[in-house]
Each structure stands twice: as structure tokens, then as C-alpha cells.
Amino acid sequence: MNTKYEECLKACIECLEACNNCFDACLKEEHIKMMAGCIRLDRECADVCSYAAQAITRNSPFVQEICKLCAQICDACGEECGKHDHEHCQKCAEACRKCAEACRQMVA
Amino acid sequence: MNTKYEECLKACIECLEACNNCFDACLKEEHIKMMAGCIRLDRECADVCSYAAQAITRNSPFVQEICKLCAQICDACGEECGKHDHEHCQKCAEACRKCAEACRQMVA
Amino acid sequence: MNTKYEECLKACIECLEACNNCFDACLKEEHIKMMAGCIRLDRECADVCSYAAQAITRNSPFVQEICKLCAQICDACGEECGKHDHEHCQKCAEACRKCAEACRQMVA
Amino acid sequence: MNTKYEECLKACIECLEACNNCFDACLKEEHIKMMAGCIRLDRECADVCSYAAQAITRNSPFVQEICKLCAQICDACGEECGKHDHEHCQKCAEACRKCAEACRQMVA
């Protein structure tokens, strides 16, 4: 694998981890009602990152299209998580931003 | 859920089943070398159909984009499987064509 | 595929749909705090049902172990959803009970 | 997350990568017929590693059961890949052994 692939894979895994940590933590928050958007998008984003990681490593003929979709979902999740001050949300927003960028590098 | 959603979900599940049946059968074929493209695309297509089924049923904000990707991968898998006379390949090609059509109806 | 396989596959897909419908509906509930357990288990259960559907249709050598795990997660999700009066929870609990039973028939 | 979790997650991701690299490479081998078992188990193993990575990071109530299943599938994939001299098979067999060990540490 070349560097671009390895960096994108790493960013996808770190984003999957941050999104799932945020999903778990949001479900335990006292004021969960305001976290509903986060919970939904954390799952969406973890799932597309997992799907992209599989696609990258198996040399999928559709890796470009899948990474493009991943970047789009990372953007949405990062925007929502970025609105909340919880540490798990801020970490998730940062991981989403990095993953979206790495996925765009794959497509470029 | 409305009719369009239910029809797309049904088509995705039937396509997932046909692709995975074809994957299993191709791996048992005497002349497996010529089936390598089928095996690869059967997995790609089963995975995107599974992903689309999850997206449709959880009311994903990205269901349009995911169904668009699913249609594209179904097209490729159906084209490859359609080249082979094995019954499992022909059934898979037909399921791919129906699923691509149903996914395009979702996006329309 | 034989009848036992087809029935288990059908039960997994219906359970996946009911769990994801419940996940989506729980996130929109006014009193979401009491639904946190449901939301978590709906995702767990939809994911294992999706995994089992893939395993059944690709003739996985581990289909017995995967269906056993699926039955266990369906039990937990069905028990949690059964505590809530929302129609989406009651439908989910029923789908989980049927899927757990079908998975146990696969393993028997 | 504690150390045991982080090590298991890392081992799952490295195993997913090795299995998918091996899947891709096996499909390109001249003597693909003898690789059919590898191709099937590479997909099984990559999928359960992906599933385990999601379970670990979202604090799944079923992480023990999922890691136990993952160890079992890694054992089978590692045994099959270990029979072949291709570098991708040997690397995969080694990743499977490490992942099975890390998953057993999670369950212990």
C-alpha cells in the first residue's frame, strides 16, 4: 500500500473510534435530548468509516466513490459534534475533520 | 415506511442473498480462475446492499447518496456476473439489475 | 438453501428492520432519556442481524456460532424494548423474540 | 479506554488489513484454485475483525462474546493461511495469531 492509502486508513480507524466513543458517552449524558443528532450521526459516521477501511484494504474498485461518501458523512458528523462542549464531542469533531481531509486526498 | 422504501429494501436483501450465494458457489467452481472478478464483485455488492439496507431502515440522512453508490456497484456486479452461464451468476446478474433499478427509484 | 436457512434469514431481516425503525423513533421521542438502553441495544441487534444475514447467505463455516450470538443479543434487545409501551418498541420486541427463536432453530 | 482494549483494537485492525490484503492478492494468484479456502476465510476474518473493532469502541455489552467469536475465526483463518508460502498468506497468518491472542486477553 502507498502512503496515501495508509494515511486514509489510519484516519478512518481513528474516526471510527472517536465516533463510537462519542456515541457511548452521549448515551450516558444527563442532557441526552440535545445529543440526539450526535448519536445518530456518530453511528452513521462510524459505519461509513468501517466500510471505507474495508474498501481501502481490500483494494476495492470503488474506493474513490466510498471515500467521497465517507468525507461527506464525516463533514456532517464533525459539524454536529463541533457544536457541543463535551470532550468526547470535541475529540470526535476533530477526528471527523481529519478523516474528511484524508478521504478527499484519496479521491484527489 | 412508504412503498418506495420497502421495495428498495426488498431488492437490496434479494441482491445481498444472490451475491453471497454466487460468492459461495464461485469458490467451489472447477474453473475458478475465470470467476475471480465475480468473487471480488459479489463481495463488494453484498456489502453495499447490506449497508444500504441498514441505511434505509434507520432513516439515514444519507440514504440518497448510499443508494446511488449501491446502484453503481450493482451495475458493475451485474455486468460481470452476466458474462457467465452458471445459474448462480445469472440469478445474481438479475438480482443486481433489479436492485440497481430500485436504488435509482429511491434517488429519483 | 433449505427451509431452516430461509426462515432464519427472513427473521434476521425483519428484526434488523424493526430494530433500526425503533432506533430512529427512539431518537425522536420526547422522553429520550429513558430510551437510552433501547437505542444502544437497537444498534447492537441490527448489527448482529445484518452480520448473521451475511453469514447465512454466504454459507459461512461459522454460521452456527454467529446465529448463537445473534440469539443472545436479540434476547437482550427484546427484553429492553418489551419494557416500553411505544408501538415501535413493542414491534421490535416481537421481532427480536422471533429472530432469537429462528436463530436457535439454526443452531439446534 | 484501558490498555487491554487498545491492544485488542489495534490487533483487530491489523488483522483486518492483513486479511483484506490477502483476499485481494489471492484473487490475483495464478494458482487461485488452491487459494479458495483462504479467500473464503480472509473475508470471514476481516468481517469479524471489523465487527469486533466496532464493538470494542462503542463499549458493547457483548464485547466479550464478540471477541471470543473473533478469536475462533482468527484461529481458522490463521491455520489456513499458514499452509501457503505466499508472503501475503504468511503475513495474514501472523496477524491472525496475534489477533486471536489479543481477543483471548479481552475475554480472560
UniProtKB/TrEMBL annotation, chains A, B, C, D:
Pfam family, one: Csp
Transmembrane segments: none
InterPro entries: Csp_YhjQ (IPR005560), YHJQ-like (IPR044543)
Classification via PANTHER family: CYTOPLASMIC PROTEIN, CYTOPLASMIC PROTEIN-RELATED
Protein name (database record): Four-helix bundle copper-binding protein
Provenance organism: Psychrobacillus faecigallinarum
